[in-house]
Amino acid sequence: MGEPAARPLRADAERSVRAILEAAERVLSRDPGASMEQIATAAGVARTTIHRRFAHRQALIEALAASAARQLAQAVEDGRPDTAPPLVALHRITANVLEVKGAWTFALELPADPGSEAAALHEELGRRCITVLERARADKLIDGSADLLWVRRVYYALLGESLHGSPDDTGADSDTLAARIIDTLLHGAGPRT
């Protein structure tokens, strides 16, 4: 006989967990050493509530990483990587990912523990990225001889630079940044012929 399935949280408990995770992102991005009590205060919940939901600080960190990774995975799926034309999918996914990464910077920069839900999600996201790049190559948007693992690394670097780069980008919306990333990825900085 297997273990009992985890019961879904009541709506108020789910809101409480979401508030705690959002507060953890805000507090820990400013002070990575912040205490559970500081996070509880920022979430507007009692310290006992945070400890009831998360046995210890590491459990909270793991839940934060998993929650952010799930949101990132949903952002990719919302870009319709398998069905939208590859250029449209690349743009939508990039804009969606920029929004999620901008909101969950601390959580998404955490190293995912091997075997964790977050690690599995990040591994799947890497595969999904390669799939979209393969579709783009099939549509001749990417050279047929291009190393897609390298292209993915460049794409990730462009995402990171857009998120942490120049203060001149402050206020640029995710669609504008996505267009710049995709244009740079597909055309580089060389002259247009």
TrEMBL record:
It comes from the Bacteria. Residues 14-72 form the HTH tetR-type domain. Residues 35-54 bind DNA. Keywords: DNA-binding, Transcription, Transcription regulation. SUPFAM superfamilies: Homeodomain-like (SSF46689). The keyword Transcription regulation applies. The keyword Iron does not apply. PROSITE patterns: HTH_TETR_2. PANTHER family: HTH-TYPE TRANSCRIPTIONAL REGULATOR BETI, HTH-TYPE TRANSCRIPTIONAL REGULATOR RUTR. This is TetR/AcrR family transcriptional regulator. It comes from Streptomyces argenteolus.
